[in-house]
Amino acid sequence: MSEDGDFAIRLHGITIQFGGLVAVNGLTMSVARRGITGLIGPNGAGKTSVFNVITGFYRPNGGYVEFRRRDGSVGSITGLPPHKVCHAGLARTFQNIRLFGNETAIQNVMIGSHVRQKGRWWMNIVPFTFPGAAREEEEIRENAMRLLERLGLGGYAYAPASSLPYGAQRRLEIARALATKPEFLLLDEPAAGMNPQESAELLNFIRSLRDEYDLSILLIEHDMKVVMGVCEHIWVLDQGQLIADGKPEEIKRNHKVIEAYLGKEAANA
CA within 20 to 30 Å of 147's CA: 14, 80, 160, 244, which one? Predict the structure, then answer.
């Protein structure tokens, strides 16, 4: 097992069951602070279930999740609803893009900012009575525009999200996540649907996000070129159980990992 003294997220004995099916069985793992960590495994290994536990969509049947903030404080986020997990400093994207398709790109990003909003939406109906709320809303709009421009989406700001090309929708989802001002970012298959050139560009993009926004990043990804090219540490699941963890070069040579993906014959070969 890897050392996890300077962790951002640490899972202790996480178990997730759906009736008689055990999706994740006693998983203990950690993500280093400011690290780029991969969570990989064959289809059905339990990866997205782990994401759903961390972000509050699932309550585990056993175990707990700890989150360490930048200020060093550590607390359990187990069982918190998704909006409170987000407010604590975690944000995510989804395997299947989840945007508000009829809203514009800038409106989608502004929705992310509202998790930090001090005023209430109804205050903007009477701006002369609540001038502070109007100023805050304008700041949210300006921040959303900066994020869109940073992610190369400035030209799409007032286009419906559903009209954007697939790769742009992926980046828009990341922009919305960044608008929540996270400390920890979870990316669920960010390279899905991308061509080889876009996947290659994604490597530098993820690194730049980590450095520019001082993030810890955990990603699920099936594109092994992306995983091996950007991740500093990798955890591998198979049928809900941890079978390996280590640096990319170690994972490439791991017999159990090869067997999980390609079968015993390939592993023996």
Answer: 80
